[in-house]
Structures are given as structure tokens and as C-alpha cells.
Amino acid sequence: MSLKALRTLVTIARHGTFARAADLLSLTPSAVSLHIKTLERELQVELFDRSRRQVVLSEAGQLAVARAESILSAYDELADTLASGPSLRGRLRIGAIHTVLARRLPKALLWIKTHHPHLHISVVSGMSAELARRVEDGELDAAITTEPVSPYPQCLSYSALFEDRFWAIASPELAGQSVAQLLASQPFLRFDKRAWAGRQIEQELRRQHLHVTEQMELDSQEALARMAAMGLGVAIIPIADDDLERLPPATRLPFGEPQLRRTMVLLEHEKSQRRHLSAVLKTALDASH
């Protein structure tokens, strides 16, 4: 019985299809099927109810998945324990939202490369909600996201890293107007509503009964800010104070009563066995700020 086959079984159970498991494990569909057939032959049980069109675990399959998760967790914990020490070794899979990927993460990765050269980190980008799902499903060990906005997976835990504030940005020629006046007279350049920060903006607009005429919707603070500064409309974005100072001349007004803030967090599964590795990432972000 191989660990690879057990990992294949658990991945199918978590994601619901053989095809998705093949994609996540970088295997061919035939290899996934072979892993399951081999397990069934060795255990002398049927792991799936093949009378149904959808992938459904049999009673024996449900028990096998629970035991397989325990075995894989113990193995991963052993590997990480042996890898820890003065010079950490291993691989950490992380996700990061675009803002962090473009600004803070490169310096942190350089710090890790210098202080822990045998710790290899792979990085993917995405929006907070998407990255949270991938941490929940075990595809990522940790992610740097906006503080979760309900609903979000309850099996996740998070620790604060740093804060951004929300600002309304418009052309410098519109100085002297309030946020309400700007939104009433200018096209609205919306921060993506699928992002957790986008949900915060939408909730505050509704709370203040502010009506907008939407012009466009983007997932890039910098692009929205520059368009607004050029006179294409008014944007509301979360942005760090040092990044705010680097923007072109613009009308900048605090958004929210009181001003909205978003906390950037390190998001992990509450059962993660790799917290000692992700703690290095947090240290690196603090050291490279």
C-alpha cells in the first residue's frame, strides 16, 4: 500500500471527481484509477459506490479516507519534524493576493533564501476567497490574504500581518468635494466585488446609502487609482500608506465612517502540520518591511 495511493484517495474524496484529483496531483486519469484499483485489491473492498453516476464513497471507503488522512498527517508531521532545526528544509506552498505579491513578498522571499536556503517556497496568486478555499482543500499550506469576511471556511485560522486603509481617489481638479459628492457626480471605478476588500466597500456604500454609477470593475488598486487620478472617475481602494504616497497627484479622501481598514493575515488550516515553516514566512515579512 503506497502513500501516493492513499493521497490519491483523500484527494478524490475532498474534490469529488477523479479528473480533479488527477489535475491536482499532476497524474493522468488512468494513473488515478490504477491507484484506486490497487488499493481496493489490497484492502479487498470497494471504496466507491459504482452504481451511481457521481463519485460516492462506500461505507468502507469513508472509513478508509478517515484512516488515510491520519496516516498522511502523521507522515507529513514526521517529515517536517526531521526537516526542522537550525537549517529548515522542505517545501512550503503559499498563495498571496496581488497587492502582497507585487510589493512585500519579493523581499520576504529573498530574506528566506538568505537565511533558510534549503526551504523551497512555491507561490501562486489569486483573490482572498479563492486562496482560502485552496488552503481549506490542502492545495496550499498557507496564504496571505485580507482578513476573512463571512462566509469563509471555519476550519481556517489566521494571524495578523499588517493593515491597509481605504481611500476614495479622484482627479486633483475635484478637490474640495466630499466622498458623497464625488460618487454622485463621477463614474464609479469599482474594486472587484468578488474580493473580500470589495465586499467591505460594497457594505459601507450600502450602510451610508451612497448610490454609484458603475463604470468598470477591476482587481488592481494601482490601475484604479491611476485611472481615477487621470479623471476617469472615482475609485475606492485599500492601500498601504507608503504606496499611497507613490501615486500620481490626486484628490484623496478617507472612506468610511470611521475610515475602513483591512488587515492582511496569514491564513492556515487549523490542523496544519507546517506551522513551523509558515512561521518563517511571517518572520520574513516582518523583517523585510
From TrEMBL:
Q: Which UniProt keywords apply?
A: DNA-binding, Transcription, Transcription regulation
GO MF entry, a single one: transcription cis-regulatory region binding
Family annotation (InterPro entries): LysR_HTH_N, LysR_subst-bd, WH-like_DNA-bd_sf, WH_DNA-bd_sf
CDD domains from the entry? Answer: PBP2_LTTR_like_2
Every copy of the HTH lysR-type domain together lies at: 1-58
Q: Does the keyword Transcription regulation apply?
A: yes
Kindly give the PANTHER family that the UniProt entry links to this protein: HTH-TYPE TRANSCRIPTIONAL REGULATOR (PTHR30126), LYSR FAMILY TRANSCRIPTIONAL REGULATOR (PTHR30126:SF94)
Q: Which family, according to the similarity comment?
A: Belongs to the LysR transcriptional regulatory family.
Question: What protein name does the entry list?
Answer: HTH-type transcriptional activator IlvY
- Organism from which the protein derives: Pseudomonas reidholzensis
Q: What is the lineage of its organism?
A: Bacteria, Pseudomonadati, Pseudomonadota, Gammaproteobacteria, Pseudomonadales
